[in-house]
């Protein structure tokens, strides 16, 4: 097999949707009536639009059995009994609704990328968004210091702008290492449309090893963006780690992608909570780390300490490194 994904579909809208999850992967689209046996056999992964499935089933010559076949369906069609008959007949191992199940689809395709790119969303449940701003800036600082080439999207206007956060941390591009950072900042008070954010994420991910997106989990359109994300980091203060707002954001994130990490930041009074989180017994979330930065006497200095603590930057970056896709195709 070759390292390309075959998408069998007629509607151009489906191709546009799938392209947003195929970063770093060669995607070949074929209408069902133009499918060749060579395409079917050589593809590393075959995606079949449910609308094209009846046409494939009616081919004069039955398609040979093969592994790595996924049937794609619209959420409105997921209860149709024919979907399961299509899946069984065509040998599909998975039935995925798009965009609802796009996180699982992205995971499947990222393993086939020659140079897997990673898109990380930072979702701060607090209405102020300041911890999320500082965490996004910290990730950018750590990544460039490690020599990575990053894209950064600030799609959440907050009182502390991401641009100021980078300046306050004495960020000076280009850094001493070989890393680079390309930034797209929000200038208006309202978050940009989700289509613009998703297009920007896709564009940056084509050219950068890691793309960071600072998003507002309370915006109704945010969920439409998360399907193309590989990892979601939820940064919270220790006192809010088990709050309902945090649990709601984590639950929504888990529906979008299997990789969700809660990062808890405490102060001297919260040391026990942070240690419990770091030990993995905190709030029962899928993945957690905790840190209690030193010298944090007042909450007003919380963001400054977070931005100045380079060891904290590295700890956050280790989370990203842990979830980076690994290619399964020979290169």
UniProtKB/TrEMBL annotation:
Highest taxon listed in the record's lineage: Bacteria
InterPro entries hit by this protein: Rv3660c_N
Residues covered by the Rv3660c-like CheY-like N-terminal domain: 30-115
Protein name as annotated: Rv3660c-like CheY-like N-terminal domain-containing protein
Organism annotation: Haloechinothrix salitolerans
Taxonomic classification: Bacteria, Bacillati, Actinomycetota, Actinomycetes, Pseudonocardiales
